Amino acid sequence: MKRWIALVLLLPLALAACERKSSQEARQPERKAPVLVVRELPPPPVAPGVGPFSLTRLQYAQLPGWYQDSPEEAIVAFRRSCQRLLQRPASAAIDKQGRYGRVVDWVPACSALGEPGAYDAEGARRYFETWFQPFMVAGEGRSEGLFTGYYEAEVQGAISRGGDYQWPLYSPPSGKVGDRASIDAGALAGKGLEIAWLDDPVDVFDLHIQGSARMVMPDGSYRRVGYAGTNGLTFVGIGRLMLNRGYIGPDQASAQGVKAWLRDNPDQATALMQENPRYVFFRWIEGDGPVGAQGVPLTAGRSLAVDPAYLGYGMPVFLETTYSDGRPLNRLMVAQDTGGAIKGAVRGDLFWGTGAPALAIAGGMKQKGRYYIFLPKTLNVAFASLPE
User: Fold this and answer.
1) Which of 39, 200, 295, 311 could bridge across to 306 with cysteines, CB 3.0–4.6 Å?
2) Exposure pattern of 264-274 as b/e (b: 16+ CB <10 Å)?
3) 103 and 90 in contact (C-beta within 8 Å)?
4) Can you tell me the distance from the alpha carbon of 315 to that of 86, in angstroms, rounded to the nearest whole number?
């Protein structure tokens, strides 16, 4: 009985204590999950005099815009490159100079790729941060270089010559051939090398710069042509010639401006185009396209043309540059292509896709910027010009 009396007496006190505790908890501010604050760091400057080519090891927080990019979009391009790499012998070098190891050094990172569609932006960042180390690239002590854009043209064409279709696309000839002027004059005519005929000589010339096209056939169907070789002569950009001669102003010095002037001035266009002696030959492309120098289909906005003397095909490359209107352009790309004008340690050409929308972005792009290559953490990066 005494125990029951004690419990009855203590019950109001316990209830009061519970009420006080509940009241105190109600007055306390709601606890929120901690927020991860990522602080981006400025990339370090490259000191002059480090040699003709150098890499500087960085942290991901030093890549401008790394945490704002959507790197899962680059996974599509990188998976294509990995599939191509894994078809090569394990002992094959990744690049011409042998700087970036052999295929066997890249197998762990490629094998760790998840299934298509398995990544969101955070998961893709985690993948690259887990498997790769970023390095800033510099040439001759300078980390800044030039970045341009290219696209897959859409042209009107036919298999046979006739009507409006009077300007040929050639497959590669055997042996040496002359310059553009001699080929235009008929050096390859009658040899059975014509694979298609276009309705516009300016489109043919532009196609020799872009390297690929989606061709609209007379019946409305599509076929693709892609790069198959050149005559081996040096590329000359006629846009610079036109600007220097006063044919166009700085506001017209874009792919669109150059093409418009050539069409408006046909009496001068042929001779001007022939000042670029380099001539490109083509082949039919089946399936997805266009296909880059690595031999894989390019991914719009994520494939980058580079100089293979400095980078290897299939390497992830984080880009720091701007659009032609000055907006920041910081995104992860994959080195999958090259081009006659793409020369130098820090030089890139961004593939933007097919047709007029892609041309609108690519046409006026001629921007300064940097890039940062990603190398597998399993790779022992050690060569003389790598600063510690």
Assistant:
1) 311
2) eeeeebeebbb
3) yes
4) 13
Largest CA distance in the chain: 121
Q: Residue 100 — φ and ψ, nearest 5°?
A: -110, 30
Return the axis-axis angle of helices 355-362 and 255-264, rounded to nearest 10°: 110
Residue that has been written with the tokens 């700087």 in this structure? 99
- C-alpha closest to that of 234 among 340, 339, 77: 340
- Amino acid at position 168, single letter: P
Q: Which residues contact 269 (CB under 8 A, 6 or more apart)?
A: 201, 202, 262, 263
Q: Find out whether 106 and 26 touch, Cβ atoms under 8 Å.
A: no
**Which of the 8 DSSP states describes residue 161?**
-
Give, rounded to a whole angstrom, the gap between the first and last alpha carbons of the chain: 83
Type of residue found at 261: W
DSSP strand pairing (303-305 vs 212-216): unpaired
pTM over cut 0.70: yes
Question: What does the pLDDT look like over 124-174, one tens digit per residue?
Answer: 999 999 999 999 999 888 899 999 999 998 999 999 999 999 999 999 999
